[in-house]
Amino acid sequence: MSSDSLKETLAALHEELSRTSALDEKSRARLRQIIREVEGLGPSSASAADTLHRHRLEELAIEFEIEHPTLAAGLRQLIDLLAKAGL
């Protein structure tokens, strides 16, 4: 996985988040927070913390699946990219 792929996926999530008006503020804040945390991940990140991020991303994807399928798909793509990068 290239850092470009991760940046593109994160940018797409930011874009979708800005377009999604039906998302409640609590969910919007949770999504913004996890995206910021993922942006800060790097090769020196602890694997337990990385697993936690993937778990939280998956929880959000499940939560958004019905009402916000594009966000859910973007989150799952992010999960896959992080796994491929070993993060």
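the 2nd protein, sequnce then structure:
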Amino acid sequence: MKKYGIFYASTSGHTAEAARSIAKHLNIAEEDMHDVATTAPSVLGEYETAILGSPTYGKGAMQPKMADFIDGAQSLFLKGHKLAFFGTGDDTMTDSFCSAVGDMARALSATEATQVGEFDARGYIFDNSRAEIAPGVYAGLLLDYVNHADLSEDRIARWVKTL
């Protein structure tokens, strides 16, 4: 079983950029980076830790290809594996900032995988996110390349240490 795999969906390129940066920090090979548009959900089981990333659009929608991937992955049994989540968004969408992170985490809780990578969202200003699992604690890494690109690399470097 391989240590890390990254599974991402990206439309504007920000989530793919974050995935590449995470891969660099963790020394993940290109072959272990998976665009979910062309990857079967069962591939999650090939990794000790699967890292999933999706942008959040509009009123909190997950990227459609990731939503389809998550739908397929919900029936997997991943006990003994770990899942980590990251997402990109725009903190001016104050009612749904990076909500896809929380949606992925909740949807995959039935797989019995251990969820890792909780993180804070300091530096961003928003009112609500479904990624929040406790006051000030989020189900994964939240990134805003639109308004706060300068924060992304440091946040990624700190987050990967939690995995």
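The mean pLDDT is 96. The beta strands are 2-8, 33-35, 47-57, 61-62, 82-88, 114-116, 132-134, 137-138, 141-143.
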